[in-house]
């Protein structure tokens, strides 16, 4: 029997890293947190699905390992760790947690990693290329467990009782967004999305692939890196404004929008202000319920 954490019926999301671009630390980031992208989706009877491998993965791994220890004490047996990772892209802030993911050190661990197909080699080759001396002392194959890297395009596939859609989204390198349906609940994860990456696209254009991923989702976790003012100088950086995130959610009929991938220059106070503004803008434009993701936040999907 595999260990499943925090599960007592329903579908749950736990945010372990909500920051974009680079981890940050200090009193200014205490409430929302400074770890980069990592969100776990768990539901009773299903192996976990993990969105992205940012520095938040460390905390998630510690919780899994605590679960293993408790199981070991209670049942005098060990349990294999099984999980699926849905990786959006290979930017540092989305992969740098992997070497510190303690559950992957177990020889019986089996982790399926779906990520965007690359032009320059397989996903396994790309990871082996950045996780080796002198960049890092060990390689993926030396972690201990089994990591199966799955080169993924725009696709639909089943993951242990869940249905998953992957679609390409606009960013500065090949990047996927994901939709997961499980137990009648829908979660969409689009961590990095830059409408300004395609110069010919009008600012309010939402591609069909994005609408399909988000269609009537219970929760949309979406890039909200820039204020409208910041965006003017950074429209080619590959990220969204808060207003665009609300616009996407409204156009797709999303119930709850979680602002995500917070800019590392945005303090707790700045994100509070951004959330107030996003809620006011959403209410004025008949948009969704808006929340700002923070580290440690746990959502019961469907009642969020
Ligand atoms: Zn990112
Ligand atoms: Zn990125």
Description:
The chain is of the alpha/beta class. The chain has a single domain, classed as Metallo-beta-lactamase, Chain A (4-Layer Sandwich). The chain has seven helices and 14 strands. The strands form two sheets. Strands 6-5-4-3-2-1-14 form a seven-stranded mixed sheet. Strands 7-8-9-10-11-12-13 form a seven-stranded mixed sheet. Strand 12, helix 7 and strand 13 form a beta-alpha-beta unit. Helix 4 crosses helix 6 and helix 6 packs across helix 7. The N terminus is likely disordered. Bound molecules: zinc ion (2 copies).
Comma- or semicolon-separated keywords:
304 residues; alpha/beta; Metallo-beta-lactamase, Chain A; 7-stranded mixed β-sheet; 7 helices; 24% helix; disordered N terminus; binds zinc ion
Quick synopsis:
The protein is 24% helix and 26% strand. It has seven helices and 14 strands.
What's the topology here?
Elements: E1 11-17, E2 38-43, E3 49-51, H1 57-75, E4 82-86, H2 92-95, E5 110-116, H3 123-130, E6 146-152, E7 155-159, E8 162-168, E9 176-182, E10 185-190, H4 208-214, E11 219-223, H5 228-234, H6 242-252, E12 256-260, H7 268-284, E13 289-292, E14 298-301
Helix pairs in contact: 4-6, 6-7
Any ligands, ions or cofactors bound here, and which? zinc ion
Shape: globular
Helix content: 10-25%
User: What is the number of strand segments?
Assistant: 14
State the CATH architecture.
Answer: 4-Layer Sandwich
Give the H and E element order.
Answer: EEEHEHEHEEEEEHEHHEHEE
Q: What composes the largest sheet? A: 7 strands, mixed
Q: What is the number of helices?
A: 7
Number of domains: 1
Low-confidence stretches: 1-7
Please identify the structural class as seen in this structure: alpha/beta
Nearest-integer average pLDDT: 93
């Amino acid at each position: 029997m595999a260990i499943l954490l925090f599960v007592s019926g329903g579908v749950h999301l736990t945010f372990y890293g909500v920051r974009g671009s680079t981890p940050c630390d200090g009193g200014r980031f205490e409430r929302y947190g400074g770890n980069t992208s990592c969100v776990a989706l768990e539901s009773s009877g299903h192996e976990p699905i993990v969105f992205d491998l940012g520095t938040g993965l460390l905390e998630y791994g510690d919780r899994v390992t605590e679960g293993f220890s408790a199981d070991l004490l209670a049942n005098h047996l060990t349990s294999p760790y099984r999980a699926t990772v849905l990786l959006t892209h290979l930017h540092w802030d989305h992969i740098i947690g992997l070497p510190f993911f303690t559950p992957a050190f177990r020889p019986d661990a089996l982790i399926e990693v779906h990520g965007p197909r690359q032009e320059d080699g397989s996903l396994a080759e790309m990871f082996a290329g950045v996780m080796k001396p002198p960049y890092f002392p060990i390689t993926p194959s030396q972690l201990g467990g089994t990591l199966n890297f799955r080169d993924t395009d725009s696709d639909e596939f089943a993951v242990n009782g869940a249905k998953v859609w992957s679609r390409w989204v606009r960013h500065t390198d090949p990047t996927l967004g994901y939709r997961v349906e499980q137990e009648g609940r829908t979660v969409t994860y689009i961590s990095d999305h830059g409408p300004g990456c395609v110069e010919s696209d009008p600012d309010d254009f939402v591609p069909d692939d994005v609408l399909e991923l988000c269609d009537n989702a219970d929760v949309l976790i979406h890039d909200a890196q820039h204020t409208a003012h910041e965006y003017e100088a950074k429209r080619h950086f590959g990220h969204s404004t808060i207003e665009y995130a609300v616009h996407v959610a409204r156009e797709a009929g999303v119930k709850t929008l979680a602002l995500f991938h917070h800019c590392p220059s945005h303090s707790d106070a700045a994100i509070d202000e951004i959330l107030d503004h996003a809620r006011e803008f959403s209410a004025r434009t008949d948009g969704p319920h808006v929340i700002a993701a923070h580290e440690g936040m746990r959502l019961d999907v469907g009642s969020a």
